[in-house]
Amino acid sequence: MKLPVISALCASVILASNSFAQENKDITIGIAACCVVGQTQTMDTAAERWKEMAEKQGIKVIYENADEANNPDKTAQIKQMREMVDKGAKAILVMLVQNKSDLSKEQDEFFKYAKEKGTTVIAYNREPGKALLGRNDNLYYVGSAARQGGMYHADMIKALVEKNADWDKNKDGKIQYLLIQGTEGASNETARTKGLTSTLSKDEKMKQVKAERANWNNAKAKEITAGYISSGEIEQFELIACNSDDMALGVLAAFKEAGKEPLPITSINALPEVQQAIKEGEIQGSVYQNITTQQDIAFQLALNLINKKPAGEGLSQEHRVINNIVNVPWEIVTKDNVDKYLNKKSAE
């Protein structure tokens, strides 16, 4: 696994010298979370890591969460980020709330205000969308291209199906699958789904039977799956494809609680818990999204921009800043290669 950026970033960010910490003592950054703690490891680990990095460098942190009672609020997040700017944050690290509501005008007004105050916003993991990026030059994105992730997911499924003829339970030459999706209107959800379905629709061996929305939520995915199991309708499916690991783990939990052998399950992110499930044969594969690298790059990018340095300073050639975007490549993880990822914090 080629991850040249990690050692460099750890040296320059996590293990910073006392003199560098002194240089940053008057810096304030904001961390804008999108969901309650425990709902998604992608956000939880980011907040913890950024707070740790900031503390080691003497940087003050303002933390806010735009989710109340499992109801992420885009308006609340914009308000929280504006308050961070007013409190002196010169960079904001944010995992965006994404839903169907169109608040492009309110977002643009915020970015204009942030720019006037000299604040840069780095969106992590969830793509802001090309239009929003194009209109606001103080907005950056660090993550993995969502549509490409969906295409990798589809390619992984196709390869697994070729190797596992017994998945075709009804022997009709097709794999009937259920798709578990994230939040409607979220740009990364839309892109992952398009990447997956556009690829699988060209394969005569694959047939999508239904799609359900679990809104990136582990408990919701578990509830949906439990409903199919209890009604007996689960028998119409031969595979369950999930657009995130948190949802895949919910699906797996439903089968376990019902005492039923799980259907083949595939997913995106390859978080440590899913890596272990792949090792044990409970989940068949996931597309590795290197979230720790994303987190390190986002933090380094914030420091560079605050200190008026070139945005890409300290980053590897593989992770260049192009049009305010840093793309971190995907990797397919199955039982064949999971040992090289296992017990790594999604990125080491």
Annotated CATH architecture of the largest domain: 3-Layer(aba) Sandwich
Overall geometry comes to: elongated
The helix fraction, in percent, is 40-55%
Task: Just give the CATH class of the largest domain.
Answer: Alpha Beta
List how many beta strands DSSP finds: 14
Low-confidence stretches: 1-20
> Roughly how many Å is the radius of gyration?
21 Å
What is the end-to-end distance? 10 Å
How many structural domains are formed by the residues? 2
The residue-averaged pLDDT reads 89
Compressed to H and E, one letter per element, the order equals HHEHEEEHEHEHEHEHEHEHEHEHEE
Structural class: alpha/beta
Helix count, per DSSP?
A: 12
Beta-strand content bin: 15-25%
Task: Give the neighbour order of strands across the main sheet.
Answer: 2-1-5-6-7-13
Describe this entry's structure for a reader.
With 348 residues, the protein is α/β, with parallel strands linked by helices. The protein folds into 2 domains: 181 residues, Response regulator (Rossmann fold); 142 residues, Response regulator (Rossmann fold). 43% of the residues lie in helices and 19% in strands. Strands 2-1-5-6-7-13 form a 6-stranded parallel beta sheet, sandwiched between helices. The protein has a 6-stranded mixed beta sheet with strand order 9-8-10-11-12-14, sandwiched between helices. A hairpin with a 2-residue loop joins strand 3 and strand 4. The longest helix has 18 residues. The N and C termini lie close together (10 Å). The N terminus is likely disordered.
